[in-house]
Design a protein that fits this description.
The protein has 209 residues and is mainly beta. It is 6% helix and 36% strand. The chain has a single domain, classed as Beta Barrel (Sortase, Chain: A). The strands form 4 sheets. The protein has an 8-stranded mixed beta barrel. Strands 1-4-3 form a 3-stranded mixed sheet, with no helix packed on it. This is Class F sortase. It comes from Isoptericola luteus.
Length: 209
């Protein structure tokens, strides 16, 4: 733990689950606060936005999140969107977003899992892209398997979006009328050589196998 990894690591995405009324845009407020977490290799990381663990009502599920092709196997934790900000409070776990409504009259929303990624370190989200590159390519591809608490999903594709685009994206947050069980993974896309909070998210789309 002697080495510090200094990152300006912002929230994964700014969004809210608002039931049948649809999506609401809520702004991210920066809080430099000097909050420090430990990554998967035991390195200390200074965050630029302090996670609100209490408001997020973080609770262990007892399950795991696994991405076998990427060598990722971490504990799965449940959390709520807190104050419009989806900001996972650790760098060592995967966070499934609690849906306050579950199935709605419009259909079923995808399950959303949020992961942090860091520069010059290793958090769960780093498994999904070549984080040492200025223009990082995804390391997850169509056909890869993801396992959420024992439930298997197959990756259909990935895309990169600004955090504003991700916050307002219907294919991440809106109910699906077909009732299909779908999974969306969201992580910050950290570009080598940049400073400050990541401006983009890598989004992974998967369907239950």
């Amino acid at each position: 733990m002697s080495r510090w990894v200094r990152n300006a690591l912002g929230a994964v995405v700014v969004a809210a689950l608002t039931g049948a009324a649809g999506l609401t845009w809520l702004a991210l407020g920066d809080d430099p606060g000097g909050h420090v977490l430990t990554d998967l290799d035991g390195h200390r990381v200074a965050l630029d936005a302090v996670p609100d663990t209490r408001a997020a009502d973080v609770r262990p599920t007892g399950g795991r999140f696994q991405a076998p092709s990427q060598g990722l196997d971490v504990p799965l934790v449940e959390m709520s969107v807190a104050g419009g900000v989806l900001n996972p409070p650790t760098l060592t776990e995967a966070f499934v977003v609690r849906d306050p409504d579950g199935e709605t009259a419009e259909g079923v929303r995808p399950r959303v899992v949020a992961l942090h990624a860091v520069r010059d370190g290793r958090a769960p989200g780093n498994a999904f892209f070549e984080h040492a590159a200025a223009d990082p390519a995804p390391t997850v591809r169509a056909g890869d398997e993801l396992v959420l608490d024992g439930v298997r999903y197959t990756v259909e594709g990935t895309d990169v979006r600004t955090k504003a685009e991700a916050a307002q994206s219907a294919d991440i947050w809106a109910p699906r009328p077909d009732g299909a069980d779908r999974l969306v993974i969201i992580t910050c896309l950290q570009r080598a050589g940049r400073t400050g909070a990541a401006a983009e998210n890598l989004v992974v789309h998967a369907a239950r196998t």
